Amino acid sequence: MGTFNYQGEQFLLDGQPIRIISGAIHYFRVVPEYWRDRLLKLKACGFNTVETYVAWNLHEPREGQFRFDGLADIEQFIQIAADVGLLVIVRPSPYICAEWEFGGLPAWLLADSDMRLRCFHQPFLDKVDAYYDVLLPKFKPLLYTNGGPIIAMQIENEYGSYGNDKKYLEYLKTSMQSRGIDVLLFTSDGPEDAMLQGGMVDGVLETVNFGSRPAEAFAKLREYQSDKPLMCMEFWNGWFDHWGEQHHTRDEADVAKVFQEMLEANASVNFYMFHGGTNFGFYNGANNPKYEPTITSYDYDVLLSESGDPTPKFYAVRSVIEQYEKLDPLVLPDPIKKQAYGTIQMTEWTGLFDQLDALGTKTQSAYPETMEKLGQDYGFILYKTHVTGPRGKTNLTLQDVRDRAIVYLDNRYIGVIERDREELQELELEIPASGAQLSILVENLGRTNYGRFLKDCKGITEGVRLGYQFLFDWEIYTLPLDNLHSLSFEPGNGQEMASEEGGADQPVFYKGILTIDETADTFMNMSGWTKGVVYVNGFNLGRYWERGPQQTLYIPAPLLKVGDNEIIIFELHGAQQLSVEFEDTARLG
């Protein structure tokens, strides 16, 4: 019913010239109740298009089991975009990067030790085909050619940064076209020779991703694609944070300057991001070769904050657009209320070791198995074995751990072994004559989402050594922590829990109640707590860690209810005080 294509260096919408000014908003990082608010703000800023990735691991969490509800209701997100007058760019590549767990690939792919990712490996392609058989038909009525808002779709993401398998890229192209995807197809890569050579596909528009020096980037693109429109598919106007880093920021004047340079070059632009949102649950990714997990907040220092508020970049960018496009007077949705609810105490508790049978599935194995081999995707995994004694002081080595292990001997805390941290690779143990139970709790801190170490199994991948001797005969508990309803809590006030015998020597679930008269956005200040995960009314809000830079966890109002709200904190090490404060301002950096 409509056409979006190009003639020479000009994009055409129904035959009329158009410059795409787009912004990225990931539906899976924003609660559905706020999709319209964020999209209206995108439109108000002067943008004509929204772009989103599609996260395979969200839509097919178990092989053959699909979900498209709640945070996964991408059809509703796209329909709301159309309702507010936006065009849509969809990037449904099997792999998306996006600082998202495993780059969007489902963890169950790694249950097959022979699996090869992002190449012409038929077992991998078979999984992609099964996914596309379900996913792509959902997009057909939403295509611009069928009267919907989707004008373009991506066939792979920054593939030239990973490989050069053109047969694989052609397969994905054909996979989309054979399932009725007849809108413009594109790829996106960094503006470098190897990346463009590896990522381009015949008959598919190439776009480039960068954060600065647009003239250089577009000049390199023109060396490979001289007669097509210029487009920056990812203008990195901010950046993401790893745990233990300073919060990344970028001056709005610099962002506006680079954006204007692109418009002067008659280029189209997609801001990555316009609104970042939140890595709820265990969905944050990580980077390598030095393993660095991404924080829960995906604020990204962009045009809208994590909680959806316009930032100085919003107004700076709109001022640039006004020089090139006629905009209506700025009208924004009513601000979403934020509330400082004050402090609550954690009034109930239970230890992890007392709840293993309620939370996990137990397996006996001669050797430690990875999460993926045991059918687990995210969360924690516990390995237990009996070690004979006596043994003098001997080093315990995990070969190798992914990603962070807490070691206990007879349920007494010994220490932490962390992946890729030289000072935390071994612990010294001494075993009494009667022997001892060795327990190792491993946390999956997020699978690698970019680069050559993408195949990132979790848990203990090879074995456990005490000195030169590998230890065998293990009891393994998978602990995805995706449902805490079976937990049994004990009453007690903060002081009693802090001094409870064994409390400091095992991870503890703490529960408190937040009672409110009205719902509003709020921020849970985790100062004084060490490391763990927070659940609000059963919803996994994400991780906290004293390393920072993130100090508060964002709680959107739709996760709360008038009356009593259950707050559960899974603390791995211990807290200075067993209370939390709910504030009306984020603390990041």
From TrEMBL:
Tell me the ranges covered by the Glycoside hydrolase 35 catalytic domain, including all copies: 10-323
Please provide, alphabetically and separated by semicolons, the GO molecular function terms listed in this UniProt record: beta-galactosidase activity
Q: Which InterPro entries match?
A: B-gal_1-like, BetaGal1-like_ABD1, BetaGal_gal-bd, Galactose-bd-like_sf, GH, Gly_Hdrlase_35_cat, Glyco_hydro_35_CS, Glycoside_Hdrlase_35
Its domain of life reads: Bacteria
Locate the Beta-galactosidase galactose-binding domain: which residues? 507-565
Domain Beta-galactosidase 1-like first all-beta, first and last residues per copy: 368-479
Q: Which UniProt keywords apply?
A: Glycoprotein, Glycosidase, Hydrolase, Signal
| Record GO biological process | carbohydrate metabolic process
Give the protein name, as stated in the record.
Beta-galactosidase
UniProt organism field: Cohnella phaseoli
